[in-house]
Amino acid sequence: MERENLIELADRIAALPISGARALIALAGPPASGKSRAARELVDELHSRGLAAVAVPMDGFHLDNEVLDARGLRARKGSPETFDAAGFIHAMARLKQEAEVILPSFDREIDKSVAGSVVIGPEDRIAVVEGNYVCFSEAPWDQLAGLWDFSCYLDVPEDVLLERLVQRWIRFDHSPEDAEARARGNDLANAQRIATAVSQTDLRF
Predict the structure, then answer these.
(1) DSSP states of 83-122 as a string?
(2) 3-state helix, strand and coil shares in percent for the chain, rounded to the nearest 5
(3) Residue boundaries of the structural domains of the chain
(4) Integer Cα distance of 126 and 95 in angstroms
(5) pTM (2 d.p.)
(6) Which end of the chain has fewer surrounding CB within 10 Å, N or C?
(7) What is the mean pLDDT of each run of 10 residues along the chain (205 residues)?
């Protein structure tokens, strides 16, 4: 995310009234669109303004690889069907209302979710929730729209996504050929599905 976009987003969030336990900010985009980095930078910018914010990743709700194998979905990991959507929706409803919520994260090094690793406390008045499907219009993900106080979608060209995805898989010990095959065969398919089913958002960069 460009610096001027980050500032615009932070300005909009800073002006929000906070209802319930905290304000929920959705930061959506396809794989490798820069969501995680943008969420961290946004939280840092909000902190610099004296606002208590925390980044909340959606990826902790990945289904375990053994579950994906049993369902024949391992090759499509990262698609909407490979997440615990109902669990994530329920967790976001809790995050909106409850003072403390403890959530899982995802460790790419071991390719597994890590339970109980993200603690959101009563001091965290703004939660920046980032993930592929947080602004997705297909059911059941569309139930999330009513929970967000503000939403933003990162629209990144496909050629840029491909380059980033290939480099990502190379970092995880794939050959350049295997990295490109994995990116084209699964990640870009997910990116295209996301792009065609983005719900209405407050900002789009």
Answers:
(1) B-HHHHHHHHHHHHH-S-EEEEEEETTTTEEEEEEEEE-T
(2) 45, 20, 30
(3) 3-158+200-204
(4) 10
(5) 0.92
(6) C
(7) 95 90 96 96 97 97 97 95 98 96 94 95 97 98 97 96 93 90 90 94 96
